Every structure is written in C-alpha cells, then in structure tokens.
Task: inverse folding
C-alpha cells in the first residue's frame, strides 16, 4: 500500500515538473505604453481690438442697402461695446453691443479681432444670425446684410451685415480681423429694446467644411 | 389549446428579440451619427441690444382768437389726450357771414430723438377758405412750458427755412390762420401737428 502511494506520488511530481518546465520557456516581452494628450480648439476676442464707428456724432445709413454711411450733425444715439469672459477661462468669449436711443437708419460698424488661443489650428466655420447658419458671405448679403424681425411683428426692423474671413485658417496665436454692421430699419418700433445673439463658430482645421 | 399557448409565447419572444435588436441598431446608429457631428469647436457670442428712442411733438400751450364778420360766434378750444391735436368748437349762433381764426400753438419735442415738424393738418366740419401756417422760431422748451409764463420766451436761434427741426427739449411757436370760415351754424376745426423723426 505504501509502495503504491509512493509510486503515485512520484509519478505526480514528475508530471508536475514536466508541466512546469514546459511553461518556463525562455522568453522576452515588449510593452507599449499609450498616452494620448489631446490639444485644444479655442478662440477668443482679442482685448483692445474692438473699435466702433459712433464715438460722438451719429452715423446714418444714407445709401442703404448699398454700403457707405454719412455722419450726422447730432449726437443722439450711442453704442457701447464690452467684452466678457463668461466661462472664467481667462479669455473673452462674449461681446455685448448695446445701442441706446437709436432711430431708423442709425448705423453702427463694429470691428474686432478673434485669435486662436488653443493648440490646434482652427478655421472660422460659420456664423449664426437669427437662428440661421451662414458659411460664406453671399454677395447679396454682403451688400445688404441679413434683415431680422426681432420683435416678431411681421416686418424686419434690423439689418446685420457680416464681414468675411470664413474658412480662414488660424494657427496658435494667429488673429483675424472681422467686422459687422448693425442698421436700424424704418419699421423698428419706438421705445423698444430689440435683442439678438450672434454666434461665431470655429472648428479644427481638418474638419472644416464650407457647407457645414 | 396548451400547444397554441406555447406557440403564442414563442412568437412574443421572437418579437421581443427583434424589437431589442432593432432598438440596439438604432441606438448604435444614432451614437455614430452624433459622434460624427460632435466636431471639436469653439464658439464666441455677440449679444446685440438695440434700444430705440422715441419722438413725440406735443402742443404745450395754445391761444385761439376768432374774428367774426358780425362778432357773434363763441369758440372753445381744448387739446386731445395725446396733446397732438387742438380742437376748436364754434358754437352755433345763427349769425351769418364768414369768420377767420388765428391759433397760436407752442409745440415742444418731448421725446428722445430730434424731430421735424413737417406740417399742420386741418380738419373742419365747416367750409373754410385759405389756411396758412408760419412759425416764429425755435425756443428752449423749459422757457415756454416751465414755471415761466408764455410772455418770457427767448429765441435760441433764428428759425430758418423749412422743415423745422426740433431737438429734444426744444419748442417752436406756430401760427395758424384759417380764413373764410362759414361759422354761422357752428362746427369743429381740428388742427393736428404732423412730425417725423429728423434725419
């Protein structure tokens, strides 16, 4: 009995040794450590770059819908432009344009710079005015702009003309000049505030498509 | 009967399986679609607020006098609620002959933007002849309509040409003459000041 147990134990140990030997082959291994650090798509309003037309005597859109303004002899309306950092990331992401005590054909032209503050090259993709996206400057719109009915009374009361630079590629630190014009139209109601928000969107340069 | 019930359950199982598969495919497809549209982007906002002003020409004060052919008509004058119209009522007296009327209106720009007095409109229930309107000049409204009486007006600048521009706070005196009014049976004349924004 003891002999049988001894034989069985010996056979078991031999098998175990053989098995372990088969797994202890000489080997080597390589490791690939993969770290993906993504960049950032970010652009901002350049501080100090904002200029606007009405610094005193008002300007009149005398040639509307064609381009060109005439300075009047009175300082009646006024425009204030401020930049805000609404998300607290250290750059300006919002521009507030406030026009006060204005009247039909009062016109304001605002010029500013936007800069690439991210690490990925960007292209200015589109601007959203009155809920509609514009990917390029239409020749007619360049002349006449986008007419809006901001108080929803069925007639257009404001025109926003947008400058170009759609599709312009900006590398880190590069800036682009952009301008826009706001004209008060004749049907604008008296003693009323007409508000709208314009959004300007830039995308990574490699995903840019001029048609959206 | 029992077999039918078993078949019904199998049919439901297959339907549920198909439904789950379809739902999964839809969710996967929508995820892929959403991923393809979630491009890296950066967005700037421009908030535009356009606060319009208003213009309003009011008749600040008035004086009306009538000259009658036979001197026997009485008149009363009053302003409309919006102070843009002067209402003159001739009381019927049964007299005959024509009258003429002179109204002196002080019109002020009580608004926030300059305006132009483009004219005077006259409505009358009585036949009348020639209507003429003229103005004296542009005055500081506070001198005319404030605590001071109408006798202490001082012109700020000479009136020149037409149309007449009034900046906010400025006023002007307009003289309206209506001749050949057949006032014997009474009636009403409305003098309305017409204005529009300047510029």
Result:
């Amino acid at each position: 009995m003891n002999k049988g147990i001894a034989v069985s134990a010996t056979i078991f140990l031999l098998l175990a040794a053989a098995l372990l030997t088969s797994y202890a082959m000489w080997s080597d291994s390589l490791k690939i450590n993969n770290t993906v650090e993504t960049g950032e798509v970010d652009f901002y309003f350049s501080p100090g770059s904002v200029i606007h037309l009405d610094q005193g005597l008002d300007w009149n859109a005398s040639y509307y819908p064609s381009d060109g303004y005439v300075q009047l002899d009175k300082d009646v309306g006024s425009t204030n432009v401020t930049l805000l950092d609404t998300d607290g990331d250290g750059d300006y992401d919002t521009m507030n344009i406030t026009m006060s005590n204005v009247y039909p054909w009062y016109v304001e032209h605002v010029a500013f710079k936007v800069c690439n503050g991210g690490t990925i090259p960007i292209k200015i993709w589109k601007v959203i005015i009155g809920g509609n996206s514009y990917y390029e400057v239409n020749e007619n719109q360049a002349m006449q702009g986008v007419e809006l009915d901001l108080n929803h009374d069925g007639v257009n009361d404001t025109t926003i003309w947008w400058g170009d630079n759609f599709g312009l590629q900006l590398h880190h630190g590069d800036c682009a000049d952009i301008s826009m014009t706001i004209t008060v139209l004749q049907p604008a109601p008296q003693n009323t505030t007409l508000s709208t928000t314009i959004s300007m969107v830039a995308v990574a340069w490699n995903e840019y498509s001029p048609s959206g | 009967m029992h077999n039918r019930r078993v078949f019904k359950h199998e049919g439901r199982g297959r339907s549920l399986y198909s439904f789950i598969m379809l739902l999964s495919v839809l969710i996967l497809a929508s995820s892929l679609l959403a991923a393809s549209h979630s491009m890296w982007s950066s967005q700037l906002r421009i908030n535009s607020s356009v606060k319009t002003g208003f213009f309003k020409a009011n008749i600040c004060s008035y004086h009306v006098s009538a000259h009658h052919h036979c001197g026997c008509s009485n008149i009363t004058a009053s302003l409309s609620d919006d102070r843009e119209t002067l209402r003159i009522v001739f009381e019927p007296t049964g007299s005959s002959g024509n009258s003429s009327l002179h109204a002196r209106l002080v019109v002020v720009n009580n608004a926030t933007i300059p305006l132009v007095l483009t004219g005077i409109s006259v409505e009358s229930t009585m036949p009348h002849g020639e209507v003429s309107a003229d103005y004296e000049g542009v005055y500081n409204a506070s001198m005319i309509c404030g605590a001071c009486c109408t006798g202490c007006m001082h012109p700020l600048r000479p009136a020149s040409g037409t149309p007449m521009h009034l900046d906010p706070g400025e006023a002007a005196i307009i003289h309206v003459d209506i001749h050949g009014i057949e006032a014997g049976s009474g009636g009403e004349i409305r003098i309305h000041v017409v204005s529009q924004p300047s510029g």
Residues 2-23 of chain A form the longest helix (22 residues).
